[in-house]
Amino acid sequence: MTDTLLQNLINGALTGCIYALIALGLSLIFGVMNVVNFAHGDFVMLSMYLTFWIGLWAGVDAVFTPLLTFPALFLIGLLAYYALINRTLRQRYVTQIAVTVGLMTFLRALTQLIWKAQPRALPYSLIQGNIQIGPYTILASRLVSAAASVLAILGVYFFLSRTWAGRAIRAASDDLDAASLVGVPYRQTYALAFGLGSALTAIAGGLLMTFQQVDPTMGVRFGLLSWCVLAMAGLGSIPGLLISGIIVGAAEAVGMSLWDPRARSLIVYLLFILVLWLRPRGLFGRK
Amino acid sequence: MGRIRKDPNLILLTALLGAALLLPLAIRSNQYALVLLTTILLYGVLATAWNIIGGLAGQLDLAAGAYLGLGAFTTGTLLIRWNVSPWLGMILGGLVAVGFALIVGYPLFRFGVKEVWYALSSAALVEVLRVTFLIWSQVGGPVERYLPYHEWSLYHLRFATYLPFFYIMLGMLVLALLVNHWIRQSRLGYYLMALGENEEAAEVLGVNTQSCKLEALAIYAFIVGVTGGIYACMYGFIHPNFFSGPMSTEVAILGIVGGLGVTYGPVMAAILLVSVRELLRAQLGGQLEGLYLVVYSVVLILIALFRPQGLGPLVRQAYGRLLSRVAKE
Fold first, then answer.
1. At A231, is the secondary structure helix, strand, or coil?
2. Which of A235, B143, B155, B281 has the maximum number of C-beta atoms within 10 A of its C-beta?
């Protein structure tokens, strides 16, 4: 009993690292420009489909597709920013939500149009097999995905703290007026943050496809999931995001094993509502 | 003429209501058209009710499906198990929805959950209820539960045609509009509009924002819950998928597109967008799955980008211009 529980906990925590990566993208978008992006989960879904498509036609393994999908999603993010988000920056948040809900519907309908409604999965991945540690079996693809997610999160962390563009993003998020005064071009910074936030879903999408299938309705799940991780972490703390992602992933897995497989989302959402009630700033939030 | 100048909306609404009452005569035997019209009315009712919490009070609620489902399940279960008439069942369903709204709304407002977080937590509620009813096999479960079939029974609110449901839904719409109109002119309405504009400022002026928001939420939940009861009888079954996230989002979108706080805006948005969606589905659905939604979402984005105040003010302007021209001649 405890063995199964621990086994599930490990699996959930590993998947949670990918959730943290997705939420990091959302955190860049929401934290920096205060844009409520309801379509973030659908960017994940789109990345998964692109991974599937590239994997199938070019024979590239899902682990390596982010080399192609990362720039693609960055461009799609820029396009979405300049075509839609840029125009809503001065509008009320309900208008932003209406626009991003439109984008969400658009992406879902588009993928349904191109790839039909049935679930899609890639036949195999380079990273296969299991790793046995004591009584626990760990899927190699999950372990590699978790490691890659943590690496990507570290990469973003260094980008934000060491490079000029990264510092500009943080400055714009702290105080837009002051940042503008010292010469941060805020439109470009916003575009960069939105592009990067979207591009991070490409890595997550590629990693997810190594052990999962994709269907057009998946976007909503990843969307709410990443908002949940973000709510728990609060804004401005990258280690907090990682921990929250792991908590959410573990909670999901425990709920599935102890209660009912269908209760997966239930646990996450209950956790989400509880966090909002009790810690509206998140567990690790700075603002 | 003086009365018309005072309240041109009243004349317009009466004319529209008259036209709506006569509409089924034109399409008497066409059940598809009746379902379409009733669906438009259904969304009109939901979006008009949403306008109270979303438009006036400025709380972006995405839980319409939660209250709709609770109303449907209360009404349906009472009818299936104990043969309770849906007329009573839908009132009880509305009350169950209100109870749930208060239990959830109190801590949300008490702890100051606002804006996007309120929106997301209400969206999460719908999913929580859906999964709960999916697992709770005594009442819900994954299989549809059918309401008893009757050719024409007023007691069971079951009919072989959609015609009665058209009129019932039309009645609900008039009711929802009247409630909206009444709230707008009541003290509660002014408080809601004040806190919808700026919550801190309203609080400083002595508005008890928590209880105002709760009242608005309860009224909204009641209307949606009652509508849920009618919804269950119209479709003849209940299923956990009634707790629908996409439907809840769409209700909010209709409210936004119609113009926040504009009493009749959501209805116009429902008439326009739901019929566009259904016509696109009928035209394009057969050829390419999803194409109608691509077009629909583009329409939605364009309206949100270029008409952020919604369609309501636009129509009001056009109507005002028309009136003044008539008055001149």
1. helix
2. A235
